[in-house]
Amino acid sequence: MRVGAHISSSGGPQNVFGRAGAIGAEAIQLFISAPQQWRPPNLGDEAVAAFHEEHERMPVPVFFHCVYLVNLGTQDGKLLNRSAGSLKQYLKWAGTLGVEGAIFHVGSHKGAGFEAVRDQICRVMLEVLEAADNDSMLLIENNAGQGNGIGSTFTEIGEIIRGCDSHPRIGVCLDTCHAFAMGYDITEREGCEIAMEEFDREIGFERLRAVHANDSKMPLGGVRDRHENIGDGHMGLDGFRTILAHPAFRDAPLLLEVPGIEGDGPDEENVNRLKRIREEVGAPGPDAS
Length: 289
Ligand SMILES: [Zn+2]
Ligand SMILES: [Zn+2]
Hints:
By secondary structure, the protein is an alpha/beta fold.
């Protein structure tokens, strides 16, 4: 089990490795373009070479987080095209930089209903996978359930995957805060078992490729996406003990997306809190996954 974090890529993606090392992160998530803009990633040969060089020095699993504007559930053709184009770019760069996968939010159906947009989502995802024909995975992140968000239940995510003919390059990034806000009580042993049974039945544990490890400012079922530092929210340290003790979480790298003690994002303190819990529950160390 690896404890990693979202790391700032300011100054170039190659800089994430030094920053990750400084806070003890054992896995990395980064943006390769501004997440609130459509402007595509643009990395020169030097940046790519520097990234490979740094990654070789620190061979940890790396993931991209795609831009927030992506919406595969939209009725707006222009937005759908831009979303598809952006995902293709990200997945192509994932192949070029040799990272594990690109994590994305499916988007919102804006009231049209999941059934109405499911086929469109699957068609675009298959198009993206075909356009970026490499070894990197396209990873669906579960949603907190707000604003007609798609993929807030494991059943819905499973439907999307089956709609993509269970394509082997589709995986899932489970955000603990989003699941909790959606009403999955993964902080209690029984609730965690029920939730992960649904995950395994509808998706399969082998597709769980990353975990966003975030506590929640919102209570269980609060249906709002508000991350909190590990142990400081409604999920609590005990909640994370329950989660990390579940065998489903053994092999997927944990990636912190927390506000940070000083408000500067994931930090050493949050990394250490998860590492301590990993030890307390007897979960395997970073080399086991
Ligand atoms: Zn997340
Ligand atoms: Zn979130």
